Structures are given as C-alpha cells and as structure tokens.
Amino acid sequence: MKKSLPLWLLLLFCVWTTQRATAQVLPQIKNKPVNNTPTGAASNPLVDSLVKSLVGSGVVISNVKTNIGNGGTGTNFNSTFFGTFKAPEGVIGKPGAGNSITKGTALTSGLLNGIVGNSNALFNSSTSNGLTGNGNANGMNANTLLTGILPSGSAGLNDVVAIQFDFVPQADTVSFNYVFGSEEYNNFVGSFNDVFGLFIKGPGIVTQTGLPANTRNIATIPQTSTATNTVSIYNVHAGYVQPSGTTIQAVNPTYYINNNSEELTAIDAPVDTVRSNRFRYDGLTVKLTAKVKVIPCQTYTLTFAIADVGDNIYDSGVFIEAGSLRSYGAVATASSFYPRFKMGIEGCNEGKITFTRPPGSEGQEIIARYQVAGTAINDALANGGDYLVSIDGGTLQQLPDSIIIAPTANEVVVGVQVFLDGIEDDNETLVLRMKEFCPPHNLRGDSLVMPIRERFIYNIKPDSAKVCLGTPTFINQTSADTLYAQTYRWRELNAVGDTIVSPTLSCDTCKAPLANPAINTRYVIFVNDSTSQCWATDTVLVKVYTFPTIDFLPMTCGTTDSLEQYPQYGNAYSICQATPLCVNPRARTSNGTLTYQWSFDATKNSLYNGSVTTDSIIRVTPTASSWFKVTATNELGCATTDSIYINVVEPPTVSFVPARVSICFGDTVALQPKLGNLDGFETYTWTANKVDANVFSPTSDSTFAQPKTNTVYTLTVNKGPCEVKKTITVDVADSLSTDFTYSVPVAGDTVAPVEITFVGDLAPANATYEWHIQSVSPLLTPIDTMITGSLNFTHLMTTPATYAVKLKAFVTKNQLVCYDSTVKIINVLPEDPFPVNVITPDTKDGKNDVLKFKNKKGESLIYGGTLKVYNRWGNEVYSSSNYQNDWAAKDLPAGTYFYHFLSPKLKIAVKSWLEILR
After folding, report:
1. With bands split at pLDDT 50, 70 and 90, how would you rate the model's confidence at 248?
2. What is the DSSP secondary structure assignment for residue 490, as one 8-state letter?
3. CA 676 to chain centre
4. Mean of the per-residue pLDDT values for the chain?
5. Which domain CATH number covers 342?
6. Is 358 helix (H, G, I), strand (E, B) or coil?
7. Same domain as 902, residue 800
8. Does residue 458 lie within any of the structural domains?
9. Are residues 665 and 727 in the same domain?
C-alpha cells in the first residue's frame, strides 16, 4: 500500500497555478508560485521564463504555448502539474557526477507535490489533474502526437500536460537531457502504460510513422531499433512477476532505476536508498539525452507532452535538465607549440588554435565564423603587425574571418606565428568572437582568447620572503619548473651592468640561492628555457625584519613618571611595596606589529587590573624585589629578550598616639610621631592646613608648634620611592580676654568704709568666670572672698587695707580647661586725722595732755607711723618710728613747735604747728 504523505523534501518545485499560491515549504525548500495561462489565452510571460530556463548556448526560443487551463473541476483549479524543480543532491537520475539532474523543468500527469516523499508510502502518487482531452488546446496537437507513438490498441489518454515552443539552432545539432519516472512502475508494466514524448518538427526532420509530416519523437532508447525505441513504461523496466506466477521479462533494464523495495522485479534491481525517501515514483530512468540533426538558422517546433493511459491514476512525470537545450557548432581551443607555456611567445613559441567538429556532425562541412579581435595586430611584422597564421601547415597569411572543416576532416589546426618586435607590450591578446548570424535572432557564440607575451610566465615561489636580519633564507624553492631544462641568472633589480649580487646571494646561477640581505632587497631572475630558447623574468622581494629593540621604562601604574634609582638600593629602579607597577619595555620594530611574552616570580608579584602575560605593558602588584623578563616578537618571528630588576622597598611606619590633642590658646604643642622600619635615609616634611600653624622645625622627625586655631598637621616621610603621610589634629581652645574697672562714690575717696563698684569685661561671651577679693596687707579674715554670678557688682570694704582684686575666666576644649585672669591692687585708707595744734601737759585735769591724733568724730587714731617734733629753730626735739598717740612734751618748755607725722602703711602724712601750754 502507499500513502500520499511527503517526508523529507529535497526537490524544489516552482509551480504555475491559476491563482497565486504557495506550495508546502519543507527543509531546504522554497517554492515560487506562478499563474497559469488559461486555455485559449495568449502565452504567459512567466511560462516563457520557465521554458527559457531550459535553454543553453546556440538556441533562441519563441512562441511558447501550453495546454494548461483552469482544470476540469473546481477542486483542481489550483493544481500544480508543470513547474521547475531543484534537487541539490542530484536525486533525479543515477547518482554520480554527470549522471543526474539537479534542476530543470518538470511535467506530470498528476500533481507536482505528489512527486516528493517516500516511495514506500501507504498511498501512491495518484491524482487526476483534470486536463483529460485538452492536449490539442491553444493550437497544439499533443493528443495527436502522444497517440501516434502508442502501440496499436492502447487505451485512451487522460491528464494530458504539454508545452510547445519554437526554436532556432545555431548549429546543425540540437540536444537536451531528461529523466522519465512513473508511479506505474513496476506492478503495472504491460497493463497500464503511461506515455510521454519529446517531439520535434521542422525542416529536414524525417517523418516518424504515425506522426505528422517532418515530425518525430526524439525521446528514444539509445542504440535501439525504431520499432521499440520510445522511452515509456513498456520499453524501460526491470520486468515483473505477476501474482499468477507469470513473469514479464525486463526490457532495456540498463536504463531503469528501481525506487521501491516493496515492488517485485524479475531481475536484480536494488533500491537506491539515498533517494528512496525523497522521490515518490516507484521507478525512473537514468539521465538520457535526446539529440537530433537540424539545419542551422531554421525554425523548429518542440513539444513536450505526457499523459496517463487507460486511467487517470498512478501518475508519471518527465524532468528536463535546465540549460541542456543546446545547439553546438565547431569548438575552437587555444594552445601552443610548446603546450607548457599556454600562450604565444614572440620569437620562440608559436600559438595554435584548433577548430574541432561537433559530435554527430560527421560527413558534413562545418563553417566556423568569428570576428578577429584583441590588442595584437593581425598582419606581417613589416606592416606593424604582431602575428600571421598558417592553416593546416600552409603558407603564412592573415587570419581569415572563418574556418571550414571539410566533411572528411575532424579538425583544422591554425598555427599563429608571433613576431619578436622588440617592443615591451607584454599584455597583447588575440581574440576570436563568434559572429552574429541567424538574423534576426542575434545568436553569439563564446570567445576564444590567446595571450601573446614577450616572454613566458615564470613565477618565483614564493613570490616574496621575509627574514630576520642576519638570518639567510632560500628563495624560489617551490617554483614548478623541474620538468624542463632551464638556466638561471640572478641580479638585484637595481644592479648596474652585469654586477653579481653576491655576497647577499649564495650564488647567482642557482635556481634557489640562499639570500641574506641587510636591507629590503628585490631580486630579479632571468630564466632561459633550453628547448624553446624562450626566456622569462620575475622578481622576488626579500623583506628584512630587524630585531625589536627594548628600552625598559618602569613606572607606577596610573602615572607618567618613571621609577627612580636610589644609591642606597644599588642604583636599582625601586618601587614601594604593594604599589601597582607597570613595566613598559618600549619595544620598537620597523616591521609590523609585536607580540609579547612576560615571565616573573609569581610568588612575589600578582597580576594587576586584568593584566595578562602577553600584554605589551605588564601590570603587577609587587611584594618583594624580583626580575622581569620579556620577549618581544615581530610578525616574522624575530624575537628579542631582555630583563629588568625591580627593587621593592618596604614603606616606613608612622603613627600618632593620640592622633588628636587639645591645647589652650597661646600654648605650644609637641608633635612627636612613632616611627618604624627606617633605613636612615628618610626625609621629613611637616605641613599644616592653616597658614598660622607656627611649625618650629618643619624638616625634623619631631617638632613643636603653636597654632592659633584648630589645625591638622601632616608629616610626610619619604623613604626612597615610598612616601607615607600621617596626620595629627591639634584643637585650640578659644582665646580668653579679661579686664575690669572699679569706681568709688567720691572720686579719689577710698577711705574705709567705702563701696567700690566693679565692671568686668570678658571674651568670649560664653566663658565662665569668678571674682576674688583678697587682703594683702594686713591679712584679714577671710583672706579671699569669691564672688560669682555677675560681671558687674558693688562691694563694701570696711577695713582699711591693701586688697588684690582678681577677675578669673575659664573655657574648655574637649576635656581641657583653660583660664585667664586680671588682678588689680586697691588701697582702702583710714580716715584722715585732724591736725592737733595745742596740748596742755601738766594741767592736772587729765585732758589734752599728749599729742593725740583724732578723726572727725574725735576718735583717737593709731597709725603706728613716724612722728618728728621741731622747735622754732628747727631743732628736732622728739622722734618716734612707731608713734602711739603718747607724747606729752616732757621736759620741753612752753612755746611753739612744729611736727611731721608720717604713716607709710596707710599712706597718711600730717604737717602742722603745735603750741605747748603749761
């Protein structure tokens, strides 16, 4: 049993339908829907294009017709039975080069989509296309032609599909290739035999029995008699064993391909498994060629027709190869007397053009017409020409515009003698172009081109060489000239005269000398062919690559500054430990680009920021001193290796404990860092973020400073390439300012008791403060009286004494307390005594007996001062340094005296006169 289920489809059908439709798309498949030409309508341009795809060289077609209409039923209106196919694996025909058809035009008595699929499917490719009986539509006679080639007594035609067109051949033979296949195979051999034919009609065609005049079927079996030569199911098959046991013998099985393992055959016909799942027909022929003799430039009609016979099921199809409809004339080929040169060479190698008759034209005169063209001049040397010819060894003449191959000859050989004219015109050509003929069809054949050169072509291989400076290399080692005797001579291209190029070449007559130039050098070789005495020349450029140079530039990554060398580290390039290191080899080459390969101690260095060992600049983070080695290689392989030692310095340690201190305004602070890992070559720099930082020794490891405001001090320690910065913050308390004034009710009166008013002046305003009133002399109890709460107050001083009055203020910074004070001395005096002017000693009343100083209230005042008494003549009569109000003028006569009393403690002085009365 069979089924109509398409599997893996490798045939590509571009089909024509009466409406635009898209066929099924399977892997590697594209379909191109095209409209049909309805019955009776004019030829469709797309059908013309389809037919033209069959045409190769030497043929022009016209008047394309088809009997395809709108079908017999509505269900078949969109049926597809005529189109193009594409089989990329060559599954149409027998596998193998030249044995199969990969693309072309297909006709089927069923549907095109029934051709693809599995030949062992459940259902047959069996569909009526509804075209029964219209094979003679559009002025065609397909029914008549097909009936004419059927055996007598055959059943009627069904599902007729036909294409017809006129063509004009250029030559006297026309041919094309095709394959026939059918679902009738192999079970219905001898009963239902579908038919197809490839019919030609025109001048000179011998009429085939049963067909119209000058018409015959050229779809025939090769080398068979006329009676059995038609390609059909009953003429090409492998035989069949009927269920009754009757065996139908095979006919022409050499041309048959079995495509179904379930169909029995009478002979051994193995299935082609490569094709079995791609092509549904159970059997098909090998690729066959239809060929017929024609008269050039005459018009012929070709009709391709196929039909079911006896029923309208079990379809058949014919596959015509694209481009295979051809008409061949004489074939012209170019060669030379010495074929290895493949060209004409002036003065030493004669060219040769051979005109060969086409196959099947034996016994006929063939005329090859062409146009002589090209840059070479077809004339004698004396007339400025480049060549003359001799036809089949005849005398020299100009090349004519046609060559005749006699009926008894197979070819004509035209010798082309090329003249040595001494002109450097190395690209001349002799061209033959087929003339336009068969007017008005403008058929044109191919062109033949024969190069004509001053010398033969010699190719130095390789045609260039690259070497490292000082490294010799062989040149011209692989040129393919070992079969011929040749002599060589080498020169530099710019050599003067016959100067030999040595010593840059090992020899100047070798085929492949050893070259060792110091600079780019082009060498020229002169080659002489010993047999023909033709000569040639070619050049080879030996390009000299210098070795790269390396000039290391180590630097800190991210900067443009190179590392420095330090005497204390042996003048090695040094970098601080753990600082990203970039080592630039600064490799240079005059030849192409460079590649790099680095090596280093990976235990002391880790790759940095995605760097790899093939970078031009290696980037690492070093932990210890090590070597770095790089190999720079140019595009030829010239390599230079160099190394650099990088010294890694461990940085010093710097710290401040604590890292923040506080001072009072105006104080000095000691800046003393803790230092470690020093080598004695360090330098120190102190800087601050304030201009009034007042650093005493800015280049010492420790220093003093007197900042006025909060200040950050930075110590920079440089140890070789290492630079370490640490900071200490000094917080400065606010500046304090204290002052006060005092006043008494009566200006200048500070005699006790006295109220003194104090007014304080304090900055900053947020400072705290306290007043202290202390007795100095004499010491009173209490000695110190503290007053707080107000900057302005009044204090009563009742006791004469010397007082120290202090205003003391406080501010805090962090946990530091700062203070300032102002002290002023105030003398509180006793009352001034009234002067005493009369004393009356010895009056016995006990009054006014002594010199006693009293205040305004009459109270005695004890001053403890110095008293001196003088008589009227200025003589001192009494003196006491600690007078206690007790002098009674003893032993002095009455009279007038003068005294002077001074109390230094109380700052009191009294001068007056005194009358002593007795």
Report:
1. confident
2. E
3. 51
4. 81
5. 2.60.40.2030
6. coil
7. no
8. no
9. yes
- CATH code of the domain covering residue 472: 2.60.40.10
Residues 728 and 818 in one domain: no
Band of pLDDT at residue 58, cut at 50, 70 and 90: confident
DSSP per-residue letters across 105-164: EEEESS-GGGTBS-TT-BB-S----S-TT-TTGGG--HHHHHHHHSPTT---EEEEEEEE
User: Which pLDDT belongs to residue 343?
Assistant: 80
Beta bridge partners of 595: 633
Query: Which residues make beta-bridge pairs with 378?
Result: 387
In a domain, 551, yes or no: no
Coil, strand or helix: which one is 567? helix
> Own/partner pairs for 213-221, CB < 8 Å, 24+ apart?
215/145, 216/292, 217/145, 217/149, 218/290, 218/291, 218/292, 219/178, 219/180, 219/288, 219/290, 219/318, 220/290, 221/252, 221/255
Q: Which residues contact 214 (CB under 8 A, 6 or more apart)?
A: 201, 202, 203, 204, 205, 206, 207
pLDDT band with cut points at 50, 70 and 90 for residue 264: low
Same-domain check for residues 726 and 618 = no
Q: Within this chain, do residues 519 and 607 fall inside the same structural domain, yes or no?
A: no
Distances (CA, A) of 746 to 757, 792, 794, 824, 830: 12, 19, 14, 19, 15
- For 791-846, what is each residue's pLDDT tens digit? 999 999 888 888 999 999 999 988 899 999 999 999 887 777 778 889 988 777 77
Which of 55-59, 141-145, 346-350, 810-814 is least confident? 55-59
Instruction: State the Cα–Cα distance between residues 837 and 914, nearest whole angstrom.
Output: 4
Give the span between the Cα atoms of 623 and 621, in whole angstroms. 7
Task: Return the biggest CA–CA distance within the chain.
Answer: 212
Q: Are residues 362 and 301 part of one domain?
A: no
Sorted by sequence, the CB contacts under 8 Å of residue 407 that are 6+ apart come out as 363, 364, 365
Does residue 54 have a pLDDT over 80?
A: no
In this structure, the number of other CB atoms found within 10 A of the CB of residue 327 comes to 26
Instruction: Indicate if 293 and 417 belong to the same structural domain.
Output: no
Q: What is the residue-wise DSSP string for 429-452? A: EEEEEEPPBSTTS-B---EEEEEE
Total structural domains in the chain?
7
pLDDT tens for each residue of 854-884: 776 677 776 678 999 999 999 999 999 888 8
> Is residue 833 in a domain?
no
To which residue do tokens 């009754």 refer?
Answer: 244
122-178 confidence digits (pLDDT tens): 445 556 666 666 677 777 888 889 988 887 777 788 888 888 999 988 777 788 889
In a domain, 44, yes or no: yes
Contact (Cβ atoms closer than 8 angstroms) between residue 472 and residue 514: yes
Task: Say which CATH number the domain at 850 has.
Answer: 2.60.40
Domain extent at residue 813: 737-828
Residue whose C-alpha is closest to residue 70's, from 127, 125, 19, 128? 19
The span from the CA of 270 to the CA of 273, in Å, is 9
| Structure confidence at residue 683 (pLDDT) | 96
Domain boundary among 623, 648, 673: 648
Q: How many CB atoms lie within 10 A of CB 113?
A: 24
Per the listing, tokens 């205003």 go with 807
Query: Whole-prediction pTM value?
Result: 0.45
pLDDT over 80 at 886, yes or no: yes
State the DSSP code for 710. Answer: -
φ, ψ dihedrals at 546, nearest 5° = -80, 155
- Name the strand (E) or helix (H) holding 574: strand 572-576
The domain boundary, picked from 802, 828, 854, lies at: 828
C-alpha gyration radius of the chain: 67
Task: Tell whether 642 and 663 lie within a shared domain.
Answer: no
